[in-house]
Specification:
Blueprint lengths: L2 E10 L2 E11 L4 E6 L5 H9 L6 E6 L2 E2 L5 H7 L1 E4 L11 H7 L10 H11 L1 H5 L10 H13 L5 E5 L7 H18 L2 E6 L2 H7 L2 E6 L2 E7 H6 L1 H6 L4
Parallel strand pairs: 3-8, 3-9, 6-7, 7-8
Antiparallel strand pairs: 1-2, 1-4, 4-5, 9-10
Helix pairs in contact: 3-6, 6-7
Bound molecules: adenosine-5'-triphosphate.
């Protein structure tokens, strides 16, 4: 396993939001964690990135225990997060936003080639290179946020609710980009999502998170065929 999470517990003061979550992601996989509002998706992701320290459990990445590691150390090991609602720097240009993703990475590590690679993946970012990020559409900002995470050549991409606030057409477009990234570039991706249909549609496997617990897990086909998932998450 590239990422292995065992019995993860996360609290905000006295309130335990995540009650012992275990999950794993193999190299080359695209895995979804599906949950409704408030299920704890963002909390799990922030704990994986080190932005929120867990109260209990263990997170290992490439065989190393990273449970107590600072976010920048995890980033250096190759974990990167695309935050909810893209969170690009609005008053910086597209190119400057991308360069922010390379912060702390030695310049000689092929930065120029990586920017070219990102521009090939997201041609619109090259077209808008000198434009302020605030002037991009929601879908373009999501692409920029993904591009910014990719500049450092991560080994694991954590993606928080990429579909939020996007029109259905843009949701399809952004999910297609993630799928291509996984299939063509071999990028390992962990998605957390409310949009079960779109995310299971591109994932190998998934976990259903309900009020801080994993209730169901399986291949995407198994989950899409599960009556509980169909009723509660697919509206069928
Ligand atoms: P959403 O889809 O609405 O973003 P989510 O599944 O990502 O939801 P979280 O944001 O992880 O859910 O929140 C899980 C629970 O923890 C919720 O009950 C939320 O109110 C609570 N929570 C989240 N952040 C904090 C915080 N900083 N302080 C206190 N409680 C919090």
């Amino acid at each position: 396993m590239l990422l292995e999470v065992e019995d993860l517990k996360v609290s905000y003061g006295d309130f335990e939001a995540v009650h012992g979550v275990s999950l794993g992601v193999e190299e080359g996989e695209l895995v979804s964690v599906i949950g409704a509002n408030g299920a704890g998706k963002t909390t799990v992701l922030r704990a994986l990135m080190g932005l929120t320290m867990p109260k209990g459990g263990r997170i290992s990445f490439m065989g190393r225990d990273v449970t107590r590691m600072e976010p920048h150390e995890r980033a250096r090991l190759g974990i990167r997060m695309v935050p909810e609602r893209a969170r690009v720097f609005p008053e910086l240009t597209v190119r400057e936003n991308l360069l922010m993703g390379a912060y702390g990475i030695p310049k000689d590590r092929g930065l120029k080639e990586r920017l070219e690679w990102i521009y090939r993946l997201f041609p619109v970012l090259e077209e808008r290179e000198g434009q302020l990020a605030v002037t991009l559409s929601g879908g373009e900002q999501q692409q920029l946020a993904i591009g910014r995470a990719l500049v450092s050549d991560p080994k694991l991409l954590l993606v928080d609710e990429v579909s939020m606030g996007l029109m259905p057409k843009l949701v399809d477009q952004v999910f297609q980009v993630l799928r291509d990234l996984n299939i063509s570039e071999g990028m390992t991706i962990l998605l957390v999502e409310q949009n079960a249909l779109a995310s299971l549609g591109i994932s190998h496997r998934g976990y259903i998170l309900q009020t801080g617990r994993i209730e169901i897990s399986g291949s995407s086909q198994e989950l899409m065929a599960d009556p509980r998932v169909r009723e509660a998450y697919l509206g069928i």
